[in-house]
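Sanity check

After download, print the first record. It should look like this:
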Amino acid sequence: MEEHKHYVRLGLFVVGTLAVFVAALLLLGGRKWFQPTFTFETYFDQSVAGLELGAPVRFRGVPLGHVSEILTSAATYERDVPIERRREYIVVRVVVTASAREVAQMRNDAATLVRRGLRAQTQLAGVTGQQYLSLDFLDPRKYPPLQFPWAPRYPYLPSAPSLAGEIVAKAQTFLASLNEADIKSLGKNLNVLVADLDAKLAQLPLAELADQTRDVLNDAHATLGRVDRMLAEAPVEDTLRKLNSAATRLDGLLGDPALHETVENVAVASSRLRRVAEEGDIDRMVKGVSGAAERLDVILGDNQYDLRGIVQDLRSTSANLRELSETIKRYPAGALVAGPPRKIELPEASR
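Expected structure tokens:
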């Protein structure tokens, strides 16, 4: 009985250990092992230097998978082929990780996408210089699939040369198309061009151009000297001190609470004026003043002659009051009784 319990405990321990191990694998990325994958391969007839294992694969910039293998066709498919008949292609295999439905769709659509012009091309990733594999639709007539006699292990996706490869290929094609006559003609044309250039240079008035250039440089040197003297004589330090003082006063003015209070009062007055204008009080006031002015104009027009007589009477009254005021100043008593006081005659002194 004790031995049976021992085996049970040992079995439970082994099962628990396996469960923990599987959970750790899943947490550390082991789930990718159980995800469906789609593997395809492409062949390059040129160097793929810079393309490393694990390099990203993108379809029009969208991450799709990674490079899983970089091989040669000689070691993969042409072991029994004589060296002079080998293609010597570079075999690049790509693993795409996706859902089961997406993988099935890729398998079904692979041939159709290839006929539409889907091609693999090496490209540089930004300024780092790292190469990645780019998938995009190109002209299938311009980039036909490579010819090979073997059966690919995985679905085959044709490739297209990179931009640098195309430039090198075009340069090689151009150089190969040149024959001896073309090279001699090109050399002759270059000689004629150099001779014409030499003749044109000989016709130039180099001495006059040199003198004019020297004069321009002298004028520029004199101008720079005058500018230096002006800067040296200018009261730059005094100006800077005044600017500093003005800036200090401006800071003090801006920091004065009275300025903030004035701004607030102006804002309040502006809001009140806006509110009065919106309510129509100003329009009513203007209409009232305009009506009063019209009525005053009518009154003045009707009583124009009466007002003239009143003004003349007021002038006479003012003159009389002025005369009365002067009389009171000279003869205060006479103004109340009548006439000026009589002169007192003193008795003549005895002789």
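If your output differs, re-run the checksum step. Summary of this record's structure: The first strand starts at residue 37 and ends at 44.
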